Amino acid sequence: MVTFFKYAIPALVLAMVPLLLSPPVVQAAEAKRIGKFGEWDAYTRGSGSGQFCYMVSKPKTASLQSRRGEIFFLVWHRPEQEGFDVVQIDIGYPLKEGSEVEVRIGGDAWLLFTEGENAWTYNQTDEKTLVAAIRKGSHMTVKGMSSRNNPTTDKYSLKGTSSAHAAINKACGRQLSG
């Protein structure tokens, strides 16, 4: 019995150290759905300087879906950080290190850098042109390569993207010229 306590108490203390050293957990603001626009949903979260607005969709078809986690394509705004039209893909599996994800709309294609299970555009110019294509297109294909060298192809409908984009712009107070 003494041997049990000799190891159990130090293990318990070690397990609690991260809890004691971490800052207090702040209740995350609930996402508020602005609306459903075709195949896309628009949400806002937080308020004031912490406001975050985004449009999101799941693929209509996804390869290897039974072996993957959640799959989403997002376009988001964070006004406080001056982040607008940020493109993010949550692909649902660990991507191959150093690989790129290809997004194709019509005859145009963009390569996105990857980290973990996510992909993002390289720069604001790519974000701007990709979001413009999303708003004008009808279908989008996303191709990735898993860390186990399994290629995937996900197909999205772009129905409702212009309205969803307008909704997140309005919710985040973004004024577009022209």
First-last Cα distance: 76 Å
Instruction: Give the neighbour order of strands across the main sheet.
Output: 1-2-3-5-6-9-8-7-10-11-4
Give the overall shape: globular
pLDDT averaged over residues: 85
Brief digest:
With 178 residues, the protein is of the alpha+beta class. The protein contains 3 helices and 11 strands; from the N terminus they run H-E-E-E-E-E-E-E-E-E-H-E-E-H.
Task: Reconstruct the topology from this structure.
Elements: H1 2-21, E1 31-37, E2 40-45, E3 52-57, E4 61-62, E5 72-78, E6 83-90, E7 100-105, E8 108-115, E9 118-120, H2 124-136, E10 139-145, E11 151-157, H3 161-171
Antiparallel strand pairs: 1-2, 2-3, 3-5, 4-11, 5-6, 6-9, 7-8, 7-10, 8-9, 10-11
What does this structure look like?
The chain is globular, with a radius of gyration of 20 Å. 25% of the residues lie in helices and 38% in strands. The protein has 178 residues and is α+β, with helices and mostly antiparallel strands. It has a single domain (29-171), classed as Sandwich (Immunoglobulin-like). It is built from three helices and eleven strands, in the order αβββββββββαββα.
